[in-house]
Amino acid sequence: MKKTRRIILLFALVIFACPSFSAFAAQKVDLDLTKLNSMMTYSSVMNILMDPDKYLGKTIKIQGLFDSAQDPDTGTDYFAVAIMDAAACCAMGLDFSPKKEYNYKFPEDFPEIGAKITVVGRLEKYSEGDDIYYQLAEADMFK
Amino acid sequence: MTELLEKIILYWQFPFVRNAIVVGVLISLCSSLLGVTLVLNRFSFIGDGLSHVAFGAMAIAAVLNITNDMPVVLVITVFCAVLLLRTGNNAVIKGDAAVAMLSVGSLAVGYLLMNIFSTSSNLSGDVCATLFGSTSILTLTENEVSFSVILSLVVVLTFVFFYNKIFAITFDEDFARATGIKADVYNLLTAVIVAVVIVLAMNLVGSLLISALIIFPALSAMRIFKSFKSVTICSVIISVFCALLGMIISILAGTPVGSTIVAADMLTFGAFFIFEKFSRRF
């Protein structure tokens, strides 16, 4: 009985410590970049950014360093996963927005800038003014 | 071994890897064809000088916000190549001094322009990618791939078509002139082809390492073979083999593409050098 209770407690801890864990496992990934080395990941991200329309609607899983920036005019926070190339002289970032249902607050629910994260999200197009941007929308973030 | 094979199969599924292999093989083939002529004519450093000109041209294209910079870089590099080889003996500044002047001048102007006018947030990254290739070969657009394939075919066909004339001029320009060959025209043609190869090779190894791609295969082949034809064929085989090996290693191990290819070329040269020494003894 004691053992069963301990297993249930452990399971609950895993689920609640990582709020996106169950959803993270459930998402069907079209392009898994976490299996690639740094240079291949960098090249893949570069190729995505060069022709993003080709990848629209695809669910992408990517591992990199967490980064964030705030628009001083609107106060909107933007989040990105940064990828370095093999020589570590070039960096490339892919924006993401976490699922709204998680109701994450910045900075308390996010990792520190530069921390390693894995993000799974669908590549979508959005516009701000006249500019068009691409991001991994409805993303699950795995710290 | 199975893990390595799985990795190769996984990476092969990416279209940009397949494009890189095709373009890389074609570039190495073109550069090695010209390498023999350039080394024998003591023009090895023209490749280096023109690659720096190409860097300057790339900086101009970046400043002007030209997305497809290859045609711009090609025109400027071809112009400088013609300028270098056409001025000949009548020039005020001759030979290696002219190459050196153009080389460092272009490098300096290119970096200066990138610093002053660049809109990029990652200037050091851009410079690093242009000088050392970085991942350029893995991030080619469809247009760049088509352009590279067409230019490579033009280079190979030109070399094959004018093989006899290039051979004659390479070994004895005066004799070639005496037999009615228009040496100036063919030297000009060589200069244009060198410029084309350099613009193509910038994507593979970056502007600082291009000379290695031109020189090493030819020098390796010369260790063992003595006739122009056999040296050229061997040089092509070595260059394509080293480019393929370098690209596969760098893709699998995550090392920079350009320097891995050049390292493979250097090791092959070392092996051929040792083989030559041993074969002379026995």
Summarize the structure.
With 143 residues, chain A is of the alpha/beta class. Chain A has helices at residues 2-17, 21-26, 38-50, and strands at 31-32, 59-70, 77-84, 91-98, 116-128, 131-142.
What's the Cα radius of gyration of chain B?
19 Å
Overall structural class of chain A, as computed from helix and strand content, comes to alpha/beta
- The span between the termini of chain B is 38 Å
CATH class of chain A: Mainly Beta
Could you describe the largest sheet of chain A, including whether it forms a barrel? 5 strands, mixed, barrel
**Contiguous runs where pLDDT drops below 50 for at least 5 residues of chain A:** 6-23
Q: Look up the CATH topology of chain B.
A: ABC transporter involved in vitamin B12 uptake, BtuC
Number of helices of chain A: 3
Mean pLDDT of chain B: 85
Oligomer: heterodimer
Give a structural overview.
By secondary structure, chain A is of the alpha/beta class. Chain A has one domain: OB fold (Dihydrolipoamide Acetyltransferase, E2P) (Beta Barrel). Helix content of chain A is 24%, strand content 38%. Chain A has a five-stranded mixed barrel. Chain B is built from 13 helices and no strands. The longest helix of chain B has 26 residues, at 15-40. The model of chain B has no long low-confidence stretch (mean pLDDT 85). Chain A binds chain B through residues 35-40, 42-44, 46-47, 50-51, 85-87, 89-91, and chain B through 10-11, 14, 16-17, 122, 124-126, 128-129, 132, 134-135, 138-139, 141, 250-256.
Summary tags:
heterodimer, A: 143 residues, alpha/beta, OB fold (Dihydrolipoamide Acetyltransferase, E2P), 24% helix, B: 282 residues, mainly alpha, ABC transporter involved in vitamin B12 uptake, BtuC, 13 helices
Q: How is this fold's topology laid out?
A:
The complex is a heterodimer of chains A (143) and B (282).
Chain A: H1 2-17, H2 21-26, E1 31-32, H3 38-50, E2 59-70, E3 77-84, E4 91-98, E5 116-128, E6 131-142
Parallel strand pairs in A: 1-2, 4-6
Antiparallel strand pairs in A: 2-3, 2-5, 3-4, 5-6
Chain B: H1 2-12, H2 15-40, H3 44-63, H4 70-87, H5 95-117, H6 123-132, H7 142-161, H8 163-171, H9 173-178, H10 183-205, H11 210-224, H12 228-253, H13 257-281
Helix pairs in contact in B: 2-7, 2-10, 2-11, 2-12, 3-4, 3-5, 3-10, 3-11, 4-10, 7-10, 11-12, 11-13, 12-13
